[in-house]
Amino acid sequence: MKWTKETPPAGRPEHEPELSAHQRAMRNRLLAAPVVPASEPWRPVFEYDYGVPVGGLLGIGFATDPDTDHDLVMVVSHDGHGLFDALTGEKIVRDRDPAPEDSTPDAVADLSCPGLGPITGSRVRIAGLFGGGLHTTTEDGWTLDVVPPAWPNDRVLLSSDGGLPHSGPHGEEWWHIFHSNYSTFRAAGFSPSGRTIAVATSSDLSLWTRSTDDRHADG
Question: What is the model's pTM?
Answer without folding.
Answer: 0.88
